[in-house]
Design a protein that fits this description.
With 159 residues, the chain is mainly α. Helix content is 52%, strand content 4%. The protein is built from 8 helices and 2 strands. It has helices at residues 5-16, 24-30, 49-59, 73-84, 92-96, 103-106, 121-130, 138-158, and strands at residues 62-64, 70-72. The protein has a two-stranded antiparallel ribbon with strand order 1-2. A hairpin with a 5-residue loop joins strand 1 and strand 2. Helix 1 crosses helix 2 (24-30) and helix 3 packs antiparallel against helix 4 (73-84). 16% of the residues are buried. The model has no long low-confidence stretch (mean pLDDT 88).
């Protein structure tokens, strides 16, 4: 079932009392990422443990519904995420760990800095492995190159 924020708000009213309008703003916030991408993967932005705590920071710890009941925002967020994620509350790591890495994500660069790795850092690492310049794994190699870059900059500044 594809849930609309109104359906989530109706579910909240059944669960916690009051009327759907008491909860609509919280559910609208959780699904606001649909403005950027109308696919279910929009949920990676807020449908996780961190998103639930972000909602609490954004709306406060609780709201008082029209029936006078104080309802924790966290309960509303947990309900929303469970309804959209087959009954579970994923962590942010669950979402981020499923992102397919692309070369442009791996390394930033500063324009006009000749010490920066240009292009795909994985390709530079592979070339270093093939040329017997390193036996390090990619992440260790990238850390080593970064540390060497910082040390070179410090040495030039001290000279």
């Amino acid at each position: 079932m594809t849930w609309h924020t109104l359906h989530h708000a109706e579910s909240s009213a059944r669960k916690f009392g009051g009327v759907p309008n008491d909860y609509q703003h919280v559910h609208d916030w959780f699904d606001s990422s649909k403005e950027h991408l109308g696919l279910f993967v929009h949920r990676a932005q807020k449908h996780h443990t961190v998103g639930i705590y972000d909602a609490e920071r954004h709306f406060g710890r609780s709201l008082t519904n029209s029936a006078g009941r104080v309802v924790p925002i966290r309960w509303i967020g947990e309900q929303h995420v469970r309804e959209d994620c087959q009954g579970r509350i994923p962590s942010l790591a669950d979402w981020l760990g499923r992102i397919q890495p692309e070369p442009w994500m791996a390394n930033g660069r500063i324009d006009n800095d000749p010490t920066q790795i240009v292009g795909d850092p994985r390709a530079v690492w592979v070339a270093a492995v093939v040329n017997h310049q390193t036996i390090l794994g990619f992440e260790d190699w990238l850390l080593k190159v970064s540390v060497e870059h910082i040390q070179d900059r410090q040495n030039r500044a001290a000279a």
